[in-house]
Amino acid sequence: MNTESIHIALEKFRALIEGQLDRVERMKADGDFTDYAALPEIRIGICGGDGIGPIICTEAERVLRYILSDLCESGKVRFVPIEGLTLENRIAHGKGIPDDVLAELKSCHIILKGPTTTPQKGSGMPNIESANVAMRKALDLFANIRPVRVPEEGIDWVIFRENTEGAYAIGNSGFNVTDDLAFDFTVTTRQGSDRIARLAYDYARKNGYGRVSIVTKANVIKTTDGNFIEDCRRVAAEYPEILTDEWYADIMTAKLVDKKRRRDFGILLLPNLYGDIISDEAAEMQGGVGTAGCANIGKHYAMFEAIHGSAPRMINEGRGAYADPCSMLRAVVMLLSHIGLQDRADKLARALDICTLEEKKLVITGRPDGATCEAFGNYVMETLEKL
Ligand code: IPM
Ligand code: MG
């Protein structure tokens, strides 16, 4: 009686395998990282997103334009507004990213993106793929780098989350085989694990981190997580000066709240889903997800965003103007560093530390008792002016 259901499921599975094998071939054929210094013009696409996205993204863009004003004038940097990555437009096209928006994204080298709303199954909205996930896949942004710092507690972590594989690779392509039986899939490739591990170890070496902790659930998810560990170990062998240790994701979430142990961690290297979860936990220690930005790095494109969502509740309650732009501003720090402007990145990081940790002349609370997003942007620029 189930023969037909099994046959249909096998055909779906075959298509998924073929798609992933094609992806492996594309990774094998991929070239080197873009050299931004050699480009005549760096095009920075700006996508506001949904909810508080356009508010905090506008502020981040304003600060970024201020920092890059000389390069905008000389024509080395060009800002490209990209409309159309809104929930309404994505629903109208039934896609995580409408085709014309994807073409605009691909015409840029760098994207600064506000949070986008991800419809969940059963929410009443069409079940389209998350725009973040779609963009990470379409632009092959394989590394999601999420720094978390709490200087007074000795916390200085950089999370290297694999960004195109694991539970996310075909997260939208799971299926019900029968009314009772459903499958989702987790995907790991040798190439995918190798490239994220290389980036993490390179970063550790260049930035003086003595320790990389690989985090999986390889005691249960034996094949994909097992391969991830094997590939990371192979890369680790090329960096003998760096200590490598291995953790299961459950005990790692516990150790991150252990005040005595957590200051010893440096780089965390994880498959996609564990990286998603652990980076929210880590960001909370820094003052909340609203304070954390991230870099999504690929060889030919890079996208910078907040680690949090679009906060529709803030908009519904009329509090959008009080949204915290710090996540996006921290993402701008990473953007500047990625295009080779390390001095300017350091200066913005310093200004943000002054504004949020030291001087705190304005404080964002997300409510009218705190500063507005725009006032905070002005505060950051005034602080930059003094540095
Ligand atoms: C993140 C977010 C996304 C993710 C969501 C919005 C799909 O939580 O960037 O961490 O799961 O990757
Ligand atoms: Mg997340």
Short account of what is shown:
This protein has helices at residues 3-29, 53-67, 69-74, 87-93, 99-106, 131-138, 190-207, 222-236, 249-255, 272-286, 312-316, 326-338, 342-358, 373-386; strands spanning 42-47, 77-81, 110-113, 143-150, 155-162, 175-176, 182-183, 211-216, 243-248, 267-270, 293-297, 302-306. By secondary structure, the chain is of the alpha/beta class.
Structure report:
The protein is an alpha/beta fold. Helix content is 45%, strand content 16%. It contains 14 helices and twelve strands. It has helices spanning 3-29, 53-67, 69-74, 87-93, 99-106, 131-138, 190-207, 222-236, 249-255, 272-286, 312-316, 326-338, 342-358, 373-386; strands at residues 42-47, 77-81, 110-113, 143-150, 155-162, 175-176, 182-183, 211-216, 243-248, 267-270, 293-297, 302-306. The strands form two sheets. A ten-stranded mixed beta sheet has the order 2-1-3-12-11-4-5-10-8-9, with helices on both faces. The protein has a two-stranded antiparallel ribbon with strand order 6-7. Helix 2 crosses helix 12 and helix 12 (326-338) runs antiparallel to helix 13 (342-358). The chain starts with a helix and ends with a helix. The protein binds 3-isopropylmalic acid and magnesium ion. The site of 3-isopropylmalic acid has 7 residues, from helix 6.
